[in-house]
Amino acid sequence: MQIVTPVAAMQRLAGKWRRAGARIGLVPTMGYLHAGHLSLVQRARQAVGARGKVVVSIYVNPTQFAPTEDLARYPRDLKRDLKLCRAAGVDVVFTPGDAGMYPGRVTGGYSTYVVEEKLGRMMEGAARPAHFRGVTTVVAKLFNLVLPDVAVFGQKDFQQAAVVRRMVADLNFPVKIIVAPTLRQPDGLALSSRNKYLNPGQRGQAVILFCALQAAKKTVAKKSVSAARLKQQLQKMITAAPLARLDYLEFFDPQTLEPVSKVTPGVHMALAVYVGKTRLIDNAEL
Predict the structure, then answer these.
(1) For the chain, which end, N or C, has fewer CB atoms within 10 Å of the first or last residue's CB respectively?
(2) Catalytic annotation present for 268
(3) Of 34, 37, 131, 268, which residue is the catalytic one?
């Protein structure tokens, strides 16, 4: 397994692979890897085959964090991540720094960003206005540097995957986007690097996100319901957990991400909940 840090070196290596006819799979991450990330690596390997190349990027992207968010304390453990990647059969771990990804940004010498203007407006985009501009910019840069045939994202970040898919279609990137299923703990909590922030009491109450999704599925399986009424019921359920504070809860069309007034099977639900000071997200098709 190779570890590559300079962006020019990554681009040269990817170009060499492409000229040799090798397929490339990319798994973009911010590190502090867990079993969910490793399932994405496995999916990338399936997509490119034994003779292909799988690249995991590890980069905590500053442009997708607001000044009040957890950029400085986002969990990092590169030594552990490299060990996991090696065991998973990754070919290259790409670990660029801010100077390589955003040259001159601190001094005002960087001013080019990629913005998706429709799918990123609601939910995470409304709660974190600069977030998706940072996501689309860094993913576009990774595509230019790694030159992947396929890129694998997790369904836990459903809206992010939808935004990236739209960017790929709109800007003609020759990259196939694969969205792999969310991995969960036995009690249903979605795997996330931010779960590290939770103390034992918070961890016990964090399952409320999954419980809300399951309650919505159960309701919709029996009948179509008013989105406003179901949202009210689930809000009451979530706020009954003393450490939980709802940020948003939405029912929407999975293709357009537009909100719906009636919730029926096939509609998607997403929510963000603060458990203590930790903000967790989850989603599911109902």
Answers:
(1) N
(2) no
(3) 37
